[in-house]
Amino acid sequence: MFKLLTSVLALTTTVAVAEKFGNFYNYWLYNSTANIFDLTRYGSSNPITLPTLSNRNSSIIIAPERSALVIVDMQNYFLDPELSPGAKAGRAAVAPTLQLIDAFRAKGMPIAWVQWGIDEYDLTHLLSPSFLYGFSDGKHANTSFCSEMGTVHNGTIDAGKLLCRGAWNAQQYGPLYTSYLQGLEMGTDFYFNKNTLSGLWGVFTPFEQWLHDTGVTTLFFGGVNTDQCVFGTMIDAVYKGYDTIMVEDICGTTSPYYATQMVVYNIGGDGWTTNTSMILPALA
């Protein structure tokens, strides 16, 4: 009887110091004494506590059954040395990305690959002049999306149409593609095309439909470019009420350093930032 009363008292104390931010369906519980954010909402059968670099180095408690790793645009077009020689930071992010993929799979958490994948309807109905110009040579409209890129690697690979669905340049880069294929066989990995910077822009994109169907609410992000498509998807995730965690060392960009500083600053305020050296031990 004494043990039961002690347990009830401890539970009451924990609840009392946890402040609820949100509504009936979507909320965080914040224990300011311990500086821990509970993101599990309805609880979890196997919660995991992870350290972060945000909100005074707070920790977060996640529900693995409602968490996913989102990898944005780590495609040949952006990372292959011949197509993007300046993408050194993005290529450096490949190894820690692979480590985190394995750790998430081991905990039963899915991997969502969110990537450029243009089709004919996008070209004729949806793409803005800004994007069409930005992905062209700056002079000719026929050099933009889905234009033929020719061969690379001494003529051994047909790069295909620029970021068009099914093209080699649009598939995951190097060992990431191998990992993706393994994930498909395992049933842990899922692929979603996008036709703008953000994989969540618009009304129920394929990626958001999957999040809705699976009940995933906590998203860990990596990919390229940090300040463009990764940030675009992260900030839309914030706007739509998802827990947003940027894993800094699995992100990369060709932009100046201050572009990444802006992203870290904003996501650190709207969500959390962390890195693989902090969270991999907790997932082991």
Give the SSE map.
Blueprint: H1 2-17, E1 18-22, E2 27-31, E3 36-38, E4 48-51, E5 59-62, E6 67-72, H2 76-79, H3 88-92, H4 94-106, E7 111-116, H5 120-126, H6 129-134, E8 151-152, E9 157-158, H7 174-186, E10 189-194, H8 206-214, E11 218-224, H9 226-239, E12 243-252, H10 257-270, E13 272-274, H11 276-283
Parallel strand pairs: 3-5, 6-7, 6-11, 7-10, 11-12, 12-13
Antiparallel strand pairs: 1-2, 2-3, 4-5, 8-9
Helix pairs in contact: 4-7, 9-10
Family: Belongs to the isochorismatase family.
Signal peptide: 1-18
InterPro entries: Isochorismatase-like_dom (IPR000868), Isochorismatase-like_hydrls (IPR050272), Isochorismatase-like_sf (IPR036380)
Please outline what is shown here.
InterPro entries: Isochorismatase-like_dom, Isochorismatase-like_hydrls, Isochorismatase-like_sf. The chain has helices spanning 2-17, 76-79, 88-92, 94-106, 120-126, 129-134, 174-186, 206-214, 226-239, 257-270, 276-283, and strands at residues 18-22, 27-31, 36-38, 48-51, 59-62, 67-72, 111-116, 151-152, 157-158, 189-194, 218-224, 243-252, 272-274. It is an alpha/beta fold and 284 residues long.
Describe this structure in words.
The chain folds into two domains: 14-63, no CATH class; 65-283, Isochorismatase-like (Rossmann fold). It contains eleven helices and 13 strands. α4 (94-106) runs parallel beside α7 and α9 (226-239) runs parallel beside α10 (257-270). With 284 residues, the protein is an alpha/beta fold.
